[in-house]
Amino acid sequence: MTRLLQTTDAGLYCPPGNFYIDPWRPVERAVITHAHADHARPGSAAYLAATPGEHLMRTRLGADIDLQCLDYGESITENGVTVSLHPAGHVLGSAQIRLEYQGEIAVVAGDYKVTPDPTCATFEPVKCHTFVTESTFGLPIYRWETSEEIFAGVDRWWRANRDAKKTSVIFAYALGKAQRVMAGVDASIGPIYLHGATEVVTRAYRASGVALPETKPVSAESRKHEFAGSLVIAPPSAAGTPWMRKFEPYSDAMASGWMRVRGTRRRRALDRGFVLSDHADWPGLLWAIEATGADNVLVTHGSTHELARYLRERGKNADVLATHFQGEADEPTVNGAEAVE
Ligand SMILES: [Zn+2]
Ligand SMILES: [Zn+2]
């Protein structure tokens, strides 16, 4: 479908440019869409990523990795292939990778969302011949409410818990979702505390210049500290662990696109589920694909066959691009287990 991209045992490869995109094995040259663990893997000799994600890349892969950064829109040429990075709107520093070679243009979007997020640059459609899209929520049932509506619900829940002298504990993936939650809630309701894993990533966000409300690490408080009335942000892996005892009495909730799936919240024994995703919903995917003007669409991650079929029925050349990973690191899976980390 395009000579610019090829799937290999190490991941997606650009043969004329001689580099990989989000490789899952160590390679000589890796171009990275974003710092989530299923896309940014350790061990490669050299990395290329977008400038706003530099602190996150070094936090995740090591301070001393060989990392070259490009501003959004800036381009370099690798063996005759022009490479530039463009905002994907997914998390801080997330980039769509645009490749141009002898007049042919391909864009690998990585993970993306099209709704605005105060913690990262907004998705920008890039014109191309071939578009590689994700499809994590590529079914018509996935339609997100606006961020304003979602956070009004989170604020109501937090305020009611505060008035009932309870702690509000919200589970959110440590990179991206957690910062979106702290930026989105009404911080005047009470103090915000962070789990250690969330704290480390949040420090990288602040170092990158993202404005976030004041937060404190849970670990900074003494054993007997009273958390009632506060909001605690923790990774989903903290749910149901002994670490939770210090917050009693508490109400717990999860912020994830999977909360849209009936029964997910109940199976995880949570009080509340907020449908908050950093991936595009069904209308968002269709809008983004259309906006690229691409005739060829390659679908990866999630409901790939469904989205590819839908696009084919509407006259596009659409195919599934087989990838190594079944689940998404940044969205807890439906059955309750987390795919990676
Ligand atoms: Zn991601
Ligand atoms: Zn992903």
What is the strand content?
15-25%
Largest sheet: 7 strands, mixed
Bound chemical compounds: zinc ion
Strand and helix order:
EEEEEHEEEEEEHEHEHEEEHEHEHE
Kindly name the structural category: alpha/beta
Assembly classification: single chain
Measure the end-to-end span: 34 Å
User: CATH-wise, what's the superfamily of the largest domain?
Assistant: Ribonuclease Z/Hydroxyacylglutathione hydrolase-like
The domain count comes to 2
Going across the biggest sheet, name each strand in turn.
7-8-9-10-11-18-19
**SS elements, strand count:** 19
Helix count from the secondary structure assignment: 7
Overall shape? globular
Average predicted local confidence, pLDDT: 93
Identify low-pLDDT runs. Answer: 332-341
